[in-house]
């Protein structure tokens, strides 16, 4: 029986691959990105700025990349969940705590879904939130500095996939578990999954003044897989919608056993009702163990705090808070249009696109039009909540975004295309091929009340024949389409960092006025800062040495140090005294097993050096800063462990 199942699965996959290969020959013609004047449409003249920022997830790189649209130029890679030698993120002493978890120091993750903060349903350009999928975490990036300033681990979760999506006023960012697990975790047979494993939907509150995050509550759900999510908006504000699959509660050979049911669900969660319940003392405190890591801009340091409890909510204790909307079949994307009326379920194995109506959902709830329940949670009748069906639009629908002009755009993984269709009439009006196997797509503001419906970015999983070959793996890529007219027009291909899963975008003019240019020295509260060259010093405490160092064009102070011994732990605390825009300095020490430091104007950063050999060892500036950058260097003399060489330091004079 098992052999028959595997043969059937292989045969199906072979057909799908053949279809994909036939649909996309890899040969571009004159109707593609080289046609007409498309080059002019992506050209950004020297000195001019792109109209939009696109924040594209790096997938297994663990990072977030920033691209300009329409140029496709890469501006920045923002370190989030992975160490980054360019910025020293996760290497310097200040940012190591950002990567702390209940499992210890975890300097990697699988970053999937960025989302930008909103005010009144419109993107406001203050913060980007992104999920770590592997070790469940949510990170916040401050868009005034383009730096990660907070990471909170999510307990009772595994495969933090239906994350991170924010409500209309950034009241919450959600973190839904992809894999159900025992809650709380315990040793139990995997075969006992059904009925015993649970899913969690975590609502993390966001403080409006500074974005500080805290877990408000966790909704403990039946043991399905919770895949993707989006908040209600407009009339449906106060609700959140999560796609689910594996309503079969299978735990093995999932591609077969989790694909049996004709319909899975979209879970509709009334978070306003649960919030009221919690605010009135409802919920159960559960022991937990998770890290909350916060970067303080005044001290330029991160701290990690281990939290020991979390508030959980059983949906049966809040009647009317959670309902299931039947959705064919194994839905992946769960997308809500700008009006908040339509909830689109993208069934990976469905021939059609299912669109639910929020208004009909409320009517079905009020009139108790239930088809049954799942673990006590009401299941609404499919026909009673159905707004419409997009008939056979393509193969393998995944994700949908909206242009704010009454149109929706859906990616189809198997048929490798973006399909445009009309809300309300459900008719397909255009389609354009992708190269190949497109996953997510993004319209700037396309998951808000106010999309900027000028471009759509398709993020592709495979790019065979599109780029120069680079060994067994070819670059991941994105493709830019102009959607300002009736028909989509492919404008550009551009490579991406890691595997792009999702993106968030907004106008550059929303972010540029808030961009921080430097850190004021008078605001620097770092405990080891030297705010002038007069403050520089070297202090020994046993085998620990602290070097209070400054850097300015074009020297370090001090630049000569003696009296360091083999076996010492030497902490270089380096303050950049510059107060000009875009004048960072770097510092690197031979033999240091961390990374160089890249220090912004007015900032203090620290690296640890543990010398293991006697000698005279140089350090230097790693970031080209002036015409005399090459002269920006110094030396450290290292003596043997039992040496009597006194501790000395100098600048501009010989050490006596």
From TrEMBL:
Keywords: Copper, Metal-binding, Signal. PROSITE patterns: COX2, PROKAR_LIPOPROTEIN. This is Sec-dependent nitrous-oxide reductase. It is found in: Cell envelope. It comes from Flaviramulus aquimarinus. It comes from the Bacteria. Pfam families: nos_propeller. Residues 1-23 form the signal peptide. NCBIfam families: nitrous_NosZ_Gp. SUPFAM superfamilies: Cupredoxins, Nitrous oxide reductase, N-terminal domain. The keyword Plastid does not apply.
